[in-house]
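pinging the channel bc i need a second pair of eyes. not urgent but kinda urgent?? the chain im working w is below, pasted from the shared doc
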Amino acid sequence: MATQLVFGNFDEENDDSGYKVVFADVILPLSTGQLYTYRVPSAYVDTVQTGQRAAVQFGKKKIYTAIIAAIHETPPKEYKAKFLLEILDEKPVIGPRQLELWSWMAAYYCCSMGEIMDAALPAYMKMKSETSILIHPDFKVNSYELSDKEIQLLNALHLSKPVTIAGLTEILEQKTIMPTLKSLYEKGLIILNEELNEGYKKHKEIFVSHLFDANDKEMVKNLLEKLESAPRQSDLLMAYLQAVKSGKPIFRKNLIKATGAPASALQSLIEKGILAIQEMEVDRLPLIESENAEYELTTDQQTALDEIYKQFKTKNTVLLHGVSGSGKTHIYMELMDDALQQGKQVLFLVPEISLTTQLIRRLRGRYGNDIGIYHSKFNASERVEIWNKVINGTHKIVLGVRSALFLPFKDLGLIIIDEEHEHSFKQFEPAPRYHARDSAIYLAEISGCKTLLGTATPAFETYFNAKRKKYGYVRLDSRYYSIQPPEIVTVDLREELKKKLMKSHFSSVLHEKMDKTLREGGQVILFQNRRGYAPLLECTTCGWVPMCQNCDIALTYHQAAKSLICHYCGYHEPLLKQCKACGNYTLKMLGFGTEKIEDELKIFFPNFNTLRMDQDSTRSKTAYSKIITAIEDNEAQILIGTQMLTKGLDFENVRLVGILNADLMLRYPDFRAIEHSYQLMAQVSGRAGRRDRKGEVMIQTYNSEHPIFHFLINHNYDGFYDHEIQERIDYKYPPFYKLIKIVLKDEKQDKVKDVAHKLADDLRDIFGPRVLGPEAPAVSRLRNKYLMNILLKFERQNMNMAEAKNMIFKEITRYRIDKQWKGVRFVIDVDPY
C-alpha cells in the first residue's frame, strides 16, 4: 500500500528528547512574502547551517527545496512546526552576504524572498514535488556503483517515465528520495523537466590514450617500422606521440583533424592494441591556458587608473566616464590584477551576452581558468557547475550578465559594471524586477569591496550621483593612442525624398559612402533598432492591419519564417495575401526592419557579404561568436543589426556606421527616450574608426534640427545632460524623483479598469498628487490580459521610501484578498524605467 505524501513528518514523541529543540526559518521558491519555520530533526541539530538547502513539506502534499535563512530555538506561535524532511547539502550553497542581499532586494523592490530565490538558483537546486524526472537519454550505468535505493528509483523510472518527485515518493513508499535524486543527478543518470526543453546532455569527450610505453624508444621505433605499409596510421601515431609530450589530454577529434587521417586509421590502431579511446565527462567550459596578453597603458589611461585608486580611498563607487575606444578594458584588467593579488574575487557585469564574446577572448587569454562565464544561454547543469566553482574558489573572476549577481561569492574584492547605463541591467518580467547595477552597488557595500561603473554615456542617475559627489568620478576623454573620434553628420531625409535621391531606405549620401568604404576594403555597420522584415502590413483599400489575437499590437512580418509574428507573446500566422476585412489583394508592407535591410544590401552590394545581428539571428549559444569572428576575419563586410551591436564591440576595420532611422527612437513614448537615443547613437558611433583611420557616422533623420544631433556631432555629453536635466526637474522625474509603477492585469477589461480607479483613489487619499493615473499603456492588452498603470512619484528629499512602500503594499494586499477582485494581478515595479 502506498504511503501518503507526508513522508518525514516526524512527531515530537518519536524524536530523541535528549537533543535540544532547534527551529529553522526557511525560504521557499514561492511568491509568498514571508519565511516559514520548521523544526530541525535531532539527526541534524549539530550540523544544520544557514545557507543549506532542505527538503520541506509545504501544504498537505507538496514538497519543495528550501533555503535555511535562520536557525533559532523559538517555536512559531501561529502553528505547530513541521519537521524538515532532509538537509540536502553538507555545506551551505548560499553565504550570509547573499542572504543579506536577498533581504535588501525583497524590501527595496517590493517582492518576496522566494521570488528572489527562484531567480537566483539554478533549476536543479530548487527541486519540488511537481518536478518531473526522466532517465537521461545517454543512460549508461556500467561505470557507477549504485546503492539499492538508486537502483530501485531507476527501475521505477524505467516503468513510468517521466514521473514527478511526488509520484516517485508514492511508488517507492520511501520517506524521502531527495538525497537519492541528488546522487543520480550528479552521476548524470537522470535529468529534470526544467532541462527537457533545453536538449541537455551531459558533456562528454572521447580521449585517446596509448597501450605501450611511450618512453621506450626501441618499442616506439618497432611500432613505427611495423606501420610503414600503413602511412596514414603511421602519421597518426607520430602526431599522437608529439601531442602526448605536452602532458595534456588528447581529444580524438583534435588528433584526427591535426593529421587529416580518416577515422578508420585510428580504429585500426585501436584494433592492433596500440591506442585506446575512452569517453569521459568534461567541463562544458573548456580549460584555457592563460597567455601573456601584453599591453602598455597610455599616459591618459595610467592617469585615469591612478585617479581611480585615489577616489577609492574615500568612495566605494567610482564612475569611469571614458569615451568609446578609450581602452577602458585595459584599466579594468589592471584593477582585476590588483584584486587577484590580494586573493579576492571579482564580479564583472556586462548588460548582454553579445558583449561577452570578445571580452571572453581577451580575459581568458589573460586569466585562463581563473575566469568563469555566466549567462542565460547556459543550461541548468552548466549553471550548477559555475555555481560550485565560485563556491570552491576555482573561478576567481566571473564575467556575466545581471543574474551573475546572485552567485555565491565568498570574498569579493571588486565589482566592475561595464556599460552601466544599459537598461538591460533592469529585470522587467518576472519578479524580482531589480536593477543589477543598483543591486551590485549594495552587494559591494555589504561585502566591503569597491565598485567601478564604466561607460561612455552615463545614465543620468549615475552622472547625477557623481556630480553631487556621492560617487567618485574619473574622466577619460582620449581614445586609445590618440585615435580621433568619428566624424558624425546627419542626412536630411526630407531633402532626399524631395529630390527623389533615395535608394529604397538608403539616402544617396549613405549609399555612396558605403560603396566607397567597401571598395577601399573597409567594413560598414548599419543600425536599425527594429527586427523583422516589415513592422506593418496594411490593406491599401480599407486600411485593415493584421493584429495579434492575444495582444493589442500589429503583427510584424518575418521573411525568414514567412510568418506574421507578435514580438510580445510569440503568436504567429502565415503571411496573408488577401485582406480579411474587404477581401482585396491590396496588402502593402510598411516600414522596415533588419531582415529587409539585409535583403536589400544583397541587391545593392552583391559582391560583399552581409551578416545580421538581432534576436532572431542569435538564438543559439554560439551565434554571437560566429558573427563576430566572421567580421573580425573580414569574411563579411557589412553588419546590420539592432541595439545588440551598439555594446562594446571592437572591430578594427569598421570605417563607416550608418543609423538608418534615428526618429524611430526619438518618438518612443518614454521620458527616457531622448536619453536612450543619445546613448544608443553615441555607442554605435563609437564602433567606427577604432584603429588607424578616422571613422565616419551618418545619421538619417526627418528631424535634423533636433537638439540631440548637435550634441552628438560635437561629442558633447555634458551639454546634452545639462540640456535634458532641466526637463527632469520640471516634470518631476528621476534623478530628482523616485518612481513606483503599479500594473494591474486581468482578462476582463471593465474589471481591471474598475479596480485600478478604486486603488488609485485610495492611494491618492494617502499620497495626494503624487499618484498619477490610472491609464492604459500604449499596448493595453498583452497575452489576453488587459493592463492599467498607476504611477507614483516621490520626491527624494524628506520622503521615507521604506514607509511609502509598506503603505503601498498594504493597500494592494487589501485588494488581493478581496474576493471581488479575485484573479486580478497586481505588479509593483520600483524604478520601472
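so The longest helix spans residues 749-767. and The chain is about 35% helix and 20% strand. — does that match what u expected or am i reading it wrong
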